[in-house]
Amino acid sequence: MAGQVRIGTSGWVYPHWRRGAFYPEGLVRRRELEHLSRLVGSVELNGSFYSLQRPSSYLAWAAQTPADFVFAVKGGRFITHLKQLRDVETPLANFFASGILALEEKLGPFLWQLPPRTAHDPDRLATFFDLLPRTTREAAKLAEHHDERLPEERSWTTTEADRPLRHALEVRHPSFARPEFLDLLRAHGIGLVVSHSAGTYPYLEDVTADFAYLRLHGNQALYHGSYTDAGLDAWARKVRGWSADHDVYAYFDNDTDAAAPHDAIRLAARLADG
Fold first, then answer.
1. What is the pTM of this model?
2. How far apart are CA 266 and CA 230, in angstroms?
3. Which of 111, 159, 181, 190 could pair covalently with 185 via S-S, beta carbons 3.0-4.6 A apart?
């Protein structure tokens, strides 16, 4: 059975998308997500990468989007970049207690992005993968172990229903280009992020879980340049191939000059046309 395809952007709060570049003139900032969510089916929530968000924010974002909209949530850089996946039981509890579960049925996959300095370390990866909750109830149970960084009035440790959770890993060090890494992802059911970065980082294209996760960082340089018609045609063919038996999430991160939302709409149109 064919999988579901979600196309969107990496974030939505960009000043250079305003004043008609993508957001209409006069659109107030609090309605930018609402506007974008009527044109694409998903978005990567990247504020969660920089700091712990609030439950009230997650509730507001969910309320602003259509019923079938999905958020991918980017894992905190404290976990991936500062701690580099070491000793992260409590940081993970804080992350999942910060309000993420308030998204309920709109909660999509988690994106864990490793920095370029982090090399392949199978033991460290396996330990981290074992800590990741695979259902919303597991995540709620983990969230109960948050520390004082999240006082009770700022924490959210419940879920209305038990839903499966997906996790994807984006790597940026050349040492990950080895079969053993892909085998490890498959063994733990972790999706490999297919990351197109205009040659900046290694490009790996294997599907290692029951879903595919694509990030398009730029056509000519990192975060720069619109994708050409021919380039989008090629990506559409790849997405169709993956979606034959996998769900697919694809996000444009070429945010400079508002290329990302326009490219997301263009790719979605190609897929809608079959």
1. 0.97
2. 12
3. 190
